[in-house]
Design goal:
By secondary structure, this protein is an alpha/beta fold. Helix content is about 50%, strand content about 10%.
Length: about 300
């Protein structure tokens, strides 16, 4: 349901958009999950000859391996009449099944990225993305990332300021860049099943300025460096160095989001040796620099004071 109404809400606040919810069943009523229905839907056959933006929502069943041939044929036809095509969450599977992603980069919900790669090997899956664009095709990660993608489309059409105003109205992040990871160290901590590793992770986030070498972390766990690396990979899907980098980057993100500290101060507080080291780590983890992130997210002094 949110795959549909989330982006719809974003588009409703944008100027000069005429938005229609399309129904493949040929009726004016669209059945959603959770027992809800949307009325006044437009049957596929009654959509206009030209479509600016076709958005395919995901949801239960969207990532199945069996699709109705007529439905896929209609998606292909609609896409051919559209300036751009976007998929929300597992809606990426529908575009892949329709052959629209062959040879293209794409993303979907993190829980289904591996399945997308296996099921459609011609698709170049980039799992660590909020959303991405390849030509006129846009795909997004799970659920609320569809709203981030919708904001990006609005920004593309109407400029950064309009997108920022809509983000403020909806109390969203101020336009997350597509390169921002859909993973976080918080999710990684929750995913760890080993209580000692969870405790180590809490200690790490509280001591980011310390020397967090593999050897020191392994010693704190009472393990050899090799065994600790193996456990870290199994529990977090990252090696120790990658995990420390992500923790430091996300701590820096939080400081940029909520404080008036300069980047040099933030780099020092988060354990980066220099602002240049922080810049390089941001690029490696998020695909953008700390300065670029700050230009999108850092509050002005008046905003910071207002929230104190």
């Amino acid at each position: 349901m949110l795959d549909l109404v989330g982006p719809l809400e974003v588009f409703e606040f944008a100027p000069e958009y005429e938005v229609a919810v399309a129904s493949p069943e040929g009726t004016t009523e669209l059945q959603l999950n959770h027992g809800f229905k949307i009325s006044d839907a437009v049957p596929f056959t009654k959509l206009g000859a030209q479509i600016d933006t076709l958005v395919v929502a995901g949801g239960p069943g969207a990532n199945d391996e069996l699709y109705d041939d007529e439905y896929l044929h209609r998606i292909i036809g609609l896409a051919s009449r559209s300036r751009r095509v976007a998929a929300i969450c597992t809606g990426t599977f529908v575009l892949a099944a329709a052959g629209l992603l062959n040879g293209k980069r794409a993303v979907t919900h993190w829980a289904y990225c591996d399945k997308l790669s296996r099921q459609y090997p011609s698709v170049v899956v980039e799992p660590d993305r909020i959303y991405l664009r390849d030509g006129s095709i846009y795909t997004s990660a799970g659920i609320t990332a569809g709203m981030d993608l919708a904001l990006a489309l609005v920004e593309e059409d109407h400029g950064h300021q309009v997108a920022l105003e809509i983000a403020r109205i909806l109390v969203m992040f101020l336009v997350r860049p597509g390169g921002q990871s859909q993973y976080s160290h918080m999710l990684s901590r929750q995913a760890a099943t080993s209580q000692p590793l969870r405790e180590l992770q809490v200690w790490m986030i509280e001591n980011l300025r310390e020397n967090l070498s593999v050897e020191r972390l392994a010693k704190r766990m009472g393990m050899s460096s090799r065994n600790f690396t193996r456990v870290c990979l199994r529990e977090t899907r990252m090696n120790p160095g990658q995990f420390v980098d992500r923790m430091r980057v996300e701590a820096a993100q939080q400081m940029i989001d909520s404080s008036a500290m300069g980047l040099k101060e933030i780099a020092d507080a988060c354990g980066f040796q220099t602002p240049l080291a922080m810049r390089r780590t941001f690029l490696r983890v998020l695909g953008i620099t700390a300065g670029e992130y700050a230009s999108r997210f850092k509050r002005s002094q008046s905003q910071t004071e207002m929230h104190r």
